[in-house]
Amino acid sequence: MTAHATSMRVKLPVVCIILEGVTMVLFAIFVRYDKETDPKEWHMLLGKNGSHDDKNIDNDFYFRYPSFQDVHVMIFIGFGFLMTFLKRYGFGSVGFNFLIASFGIQWAALMQGFFHSLEEDNKIHVGIESMINAEFCTGSVLISFGGVLGKTSPVQLLVMTIFETTLFAINEYIVVSVLGAKDAGGSMTIHTFGAYFGLTVARVLYRPDLHKSRHREGSVYHSDIFAMIGTVYLWMFWPSFNSAVTIHGDDQHRTVMNTYYSLAACTLAAYAISALVNHEGKLDMVHIQNATLAGGVAVGTAAEMVMTPFGAMIVGFITGTISTLGFKYLSPILDSKLKIQDTCGIHNLHGMPGIIGAVVGSIIASFATRDVYGAGLKDVFPRVANEERTASTQGINQIISLGVTLGFALVGGVLVGFIMKIPIWGSPADTQCFTDEIYWEIPEGDDDGHGTMMSVKQDDPDKII
Amino acid sequence: MTAHATSMRVKLPVVCIILEGVTMVLFAIFVRYDKETDPKEWHMLLGKNGSHDDKNIDNDFYFRYPSFQDVHVMIFIGFGFLMTFLKRYGFGSVGFNFLIASFGIQWAALMQGFFHSLEEDNKIHVGIESMINAEFCTGSVLISFGGVLGKTSPVQLLVMTIFETTLFAINEYIVVSVLGAKDAGGSMTIHTFGAYFGLTVARVLYRPDLHKSRHREGSVYHSDIFAMIGTVYLWMFWPSFNSAVTIHGDDQHRTVMNTYYSLAACTLAAYAISALVNHEGKLDMVHIQNATLAGGVAVGTAAEMVMTPFGAMIVGFITGTISTLGFKYLSPILDSKLKIQDTCGIHNLHGMPGIIGAVVGSIIASFATRDVYGAGLKDVFPRVANEERTASTQGINQIISLGVTLGFALVGGVLVGFIMKIPIWGSPADTQCFTDEIYWEIPEGDDDGHGTMMSVKQDDPDKII
Amino acid sequence: MTAHATSMRVKLPVVCIILEGVTMVLFAIFVRYDKETDPKEWHMLLGKNGSHDDKNIDNDFYFRYPSFQDVHVMIFIGFGFLMTFLKRYGFGSVGFNFLIASFGIQWAALMQGFFHSLEEDNKIHVGIESMINAEFCTGSVLISFGGVLGKTSPVQLLVMTIFETTLFAINEYIVVSVLGAKDAGGSMTIHTFGAYFGLTVARVLYRPDLHKSRHREGSVYHSDIFAMIGTVYLWMFWPSFNSAVTIHGDDQHRTVMNTYYSLAACTLAAYAISALVNHEGKLDMVHIQNATLAGGVAVGTAAEMVMTPFGAMIVGFITGTISTLGFKYLSPILDSKLKIQDTCGIHNLHGMPGIIGAVVGSIIASFATRDVYGAGLKDVFPRVANEERTASTQGINQIISLGVTLGFALVGGVLVGFIMKIPIWGSPADTQCFTDEIYWEIPEGDDDGHGTMMSVKQDDPDKII
């Protein structure tokens, strides 16, 4: 067997080494410890005599670190295992997720630094918040990955990562800093952006002959259970995700609670609708693995606001219903009519729920009053609190932010999709989609362990020849 | 194939939508943010001028949130995966666990609110502690689920959840608020209650012809490894479980440590006895998956007290021994003589260890003195510290609480068991137990991924026809 | 089938009960709650009147507990699942890991207590830090376990644990307390020690006829995915591991960040080199599961120091490269020439990266100046800050510590290897390596769940007869 166009032997090392090399050089030039991480600056802050007293330390790191780790688990375990549902793409799901997230968190720190936080010394000062924000940015790439899962090479995915994180950082800067929109859990900047970017890329990369690999697009019994590891971790830690960068105190507390109740209500909706739309009344693992999470997306903007637990549950229940119906009825139409082959159904889990989240956030923001928020208004809506704008102007800015985000996602997706389509990145043939065999060494023998290292597996007609 | 009595197509959506609808209406009427979650109240607490200073915020949320997430993982991953050991019930184990826990945490917040914390404004004010308490309550339902695993429909399980959480809240109110018993980790209120409730339900739902499904009651190699994910997560986070609602400071610290050492000693006992009772000296996965955890149950009442690490280890070691012996010798007797078909052996993991925990707690409480506890006595035994009762009276109240709990569990289990037995909930036939096929769409093909979407799986004689 | 020499029916219970019994007696005699865990002492510290005010409590426990749980997950899930890659040794991997870690954390608390922290009352006062340190010590045993995985009985592993934790405690005492070396994340004391101890034991236990079991030494598809659970958890929580016992504030913050960036860069190197050294350009799961973690090991000493994110990335990238090359080219040589049968490749993941970490730490320590560290110098290098020694002397002591550690590992490994070789511990025959069948009850039936409890599995030629 000779090396062929999809061989990663040269392409992957070259791309990895160039990307990591450029990243390291940029880190050397631009990235510095922030003042809480640098020993000299930190101890100067602590007092002239440098006396170190645990009681006086700023607790920001300690309050955010557990949330950071929860987000970290969502990005690497949550997304990685959610995508292992495919019967023969488990290595690629968790493995490419691992690769692109590892690169994404580095590149995002640079891009977000350039657009948000270059300080007077022209340096990017990294700390716990920049780590969390880089994970968020990477999350949007992993959402897009779900749309093209099984149909792209790792090099294509790295190419997507470098461009998507960059566009994410620009869009986030416009939405949050210029337009002053609130989007702590990223209904717009993470989910809507990641989903519509990924769907657009999937459209550009449309494969008319994908039917040659469709028999591998399903799950097997144990791969569905692996995927549930991803689902449940995403579900459990979503309150940490939405609250990871909100202000300490009531904001963070409220964001956790709203997200929690939205997800709980969403789960009941997903089970109800999944049974309802199946002609035998059987539950569909695709719905359970995905639509149960839509409630977390749909409060990504509003969870920080006073939406009340009841409001969160209503939003969660409606979104769980729409998401499940989307998997059942809309995805086949996107595939057959719009030529969008959305492997993981990101339109149903992130796309529509993200838009719902943006609209809900806009409406709730429009009705914010000092009567409800009291002195807390300045934490949630600083520009309303300091009378720079009215609540309804805030609401309008939220909706404009959604439009801007969709614009970046669609235009960016087209551009990056065409870059990914250049036939030099080792994209798999139409007969080689949804299989690990072309990019991974696959162990011999069956899952009962009876095979030997010497035996050759002959029974897979899709084995590369 | 036409819809038959076990079809969930109408029943599950109707029950889910009614339950969630009622829950949402009750939340709208009764549930409000607590003062740490409401922006206006919180900032009024912070000071008239509403100045926000991180240094001044109450740390309660930040100290409890990591423990809350650990408990959350135990409830959704721990219980869910522990039960995936069955060879063909992995979807039901993790999926129904997900469903009933999602509903349970909502309904429990209402029920616990009604019985414990209706405030002067007749509202339930929810915050981080109510979320933790709701997860605890849900834990007892999941314990009962283990007793009827594979033999109940999701609708039956939801029916069980709504009644069991309600009874839990009443019993908890009597034990904790009326009798003044200490039970931070829930040896009585969670484990004893959940186990004997579940065993009673299992007795009422006794199936004389269960042998028709017994060939599916075992595990396969990989399902046992999935189950170990559940075991190890439960084991690791049990110190967080027992300490999640104890008072900050030495109480919480001590509870963590006692639980930790009890579990470590328990694990060695489980391995020792598992090998000893096997005629080939082989370890049995059922014991390792379950009996290793009994040490956490057995210090659920006493871990907060001054039992010393040595005392915790003794309790753990003895309980690990009894639990393993229970799996080997007692469970078959319960099954054949008492007609209790306890799928997961909850009597061995939660029942007996829960009673041991209650007795140990009672004994240690009886000997509490100001000499040992110092000023900390008021945190652990407030009614003893303020001389409302003596230590031995506290001990007696602990034992009375065990009796009350057993009473609620047994009487409640009979009542709810008969409700669950009403033949309208879609319970599986005796030939259809321990299989996902009747409630779930099962992917085609074997676990090596060779099957195609077109093929029909013919080799399972238990497939519904 | 009669009991034979490998039967654990008597040996395992006897050893477990003796070890746990001795441990409990020593705990009863020597172990006491520390002052933050004992109610009387704690409340005396809080104030004469024992008034309990959350604002005043020492936050040490609360800041360390989330890190403790992350380390706990690494030890029990991380190591346990990382080793499940073997096709038929999943029970042993996660199960023996569970057993020896449960014993290790208890014995380590005693041994580290005897060597480090016997206080004036001749008692060992345990608290959150002693729990973390015991987990670290246990980590080194689990590294060694990786070297002998599949070729040892559980009794042999317990024997190894008792001696290795003891030697670890002595070496740690010399390195940290006598030589004053810094090694917060344990590049030397945990990784180098555990790896070379384990490799030496593996050498002593060399099996010339291991080829009789080699056909079982590989993975199957799903076992590789289980192993990725271990990998990703180790990877995600490594920042918590390296920072778990560093000083609060900038030290802990900086350690987290350096470890994070080192791992991210290491991951890209592992993917790049894995594809490069495969003649078809395919990624090898062995590399992805292991070499991606080498970056965490390699900054175990230096992450606390001011190595800058860029410095951490350089170290991570180089170590990821060396580790992957080690798996590809060095391990086969160790096996064939040096007769070291290193099942998990611990030399590549812990051995070489540990030495790199020690050297990097020594170099960075040598250049420590008050100009860079400011008043923080006393936290990182107290003996330099108080002018007891110069920075270059600190660097020399770091390198001496590496030498001492290697000495303890090699000499200790030889001694303990020969103890483990005594033919009374039930070691498996050469034909019985890498299989769970001799120590575990294996469920009947294949992984599709079609087998029945009555059927006898006839198709495994390795089944014990």
TrEMBL record, chains A, B, C:
GO BP terms: ammonium homeostasis
Alphabetized GO MF terms: ammonium channel activity
Ammonium transporter AmtB-like domain sequence ranges: 51-424
Gene3D superfamilies, A to Z: Ammonium transporter AmtB like domains (1.10.3430.10)
Membrane association type: Multi-pass membrane protein
Keyword field: Ammonia transport, Cell membrane, Glycoprotein, Membrane, Transmembrane, Transmembrane helix, Transport
Protein's UniProt keywords contain Transcription regulation: no
Record field: transmembrane: 12-33, 68-86, 98-118, 130-150, 157-176, 188-206, 218-238, 258-278, 285-303, 309-330, 351-369, 399-420
Compartments reported by the entry: Cell membrane
Database matches in SUPFAM superfamilies: Ammonium transporter (SSF111352)
GO cellular component: plasma membrane
Domain of life (superkingdom): Eukaryota
Family classification: Belongs to the ammonium transporter (TC 2.A.49) family. Rh subfamily.
Name the UniProt record assigns to this protein: Rhesus family B glycoprotein
Species name: Protopterus annectens
High-level lineage: Eukaryota, Metazoa, Chordata, Craniata, Vertebrata
